[in-house]
Design goal:
Layout lengths: L1 H16 L32 E6 L7 E4 L5 E4 L3 E4 L5 H12 L8 E7 L4 E6 L5 E4 L6 H7 L12 E8 L2 E7 L1 H5 L15 E4 L3 H14 L16
Parallel strand pairs: 6-10
Antiparallel strand pairs: 1-2, 1-5, 3-4, 6-7, 8-9, 8-10
């Protein structure tokens, strides 16, 4: 029985040392990806954003509001306004139009104080899974660093970024962080966009270690350490 288990253990180690086969079907080629954080498109307001509404000649109407989950804000005199999806400039023009029936010459400025949507999500083999704020241009490596860095069990050559394109549509961008770490291909370290999901998968050897723990260490009533040596008798 011991010889059989020892042979099984050696076989598992050989499998672990073999190079991992890449499943291209799971990582479709998204085509050329621009390495840009900033976009020429204007920022569009979304729920959770905090706005300062400033009136130059009527400071008593100044307000700081947060866009509600339904995409609306409430203001004096004009009641509720749907703002989600508008740019700050579009909202400014809309407010000027609405307040023109109440004020002689409304001069209004909209200032976005905080951006609820400037976040990405880090999942998988990192030390702190969760959200990371985008306070400026942030690369994949920088986001992983903010998440506490990679675990030893991470498969650094097959990290994926899941990017939202439009309603119901996503693209998957494969990232080989090994090439970034060894300096051979820094283009892999793309800049992230709001709502990106960075997933760091578990390495093959880590999966095998889990299998050993579940099916050998916890099920074989013999101390596992005995299989590392040969029987001297």
């Amino acid at each position: 029985m011991r010889k059989y288990l020892f042979a099984l253990f050696v076989l598992i180690l050989l499998i672990a040392c073999a190079p991992a086969a890449k499943n291209q079907a799971l990582i479709p080629n998204p085509g050329p990806q621009p390495n840009l954080y900033a976009s020429e498109q204007e920022y569009r307001l979304q729920p959770g954003d905090t706005l300062d509404i400033k009136f130059f000649y009527n400071p008593e109407l100044n307000e700081q509001v947060t866009v509600r989950p339904d995409g609306r804000i409430s203001l004096q005199l004009v009641r509720e306004i749907r703002v989600a999806g508008l740019t700050p400039e579009e909202l400014t023009n809309l407010l000027i139009k609405k307040y023109s029936t109440e004020l002689v010459k409304p001069e209004i400025t909209v200032i976005v104080r905080s951006f609820a949507g400037n976040k990405v999500y880090i999942d998988g083999e990192v030390n702190r899974v969760g959200m990371v704020n985008l306070s400026g241009p942030t690369s994949v490596m920088q986001s992983i660093t903010q998440a506490g860095g990679l675990k030893e069990t991470a498969r650094v050559n097959e990290i994926i970024v899941i990017r939202y394109l439009s309603e119901g549509k996503y693209t998957i961008i494969p990232i080989n962080m090994e090439k970034v770490i060894d300096g051979t291909d820094f283009s892999q370290n793309i800049l992230l966009k709001p709502f990106d999901i960075v997933h760091v998968p578990r390495s093959t050897i880590a999966n095998i270690n889990v299998w050993i723990d579940q099916y050998i260490r916890k099920n074989v009533p013999i101390p596992f350490s005995v299989y590392y040596g040969f029987n001297q008798n």
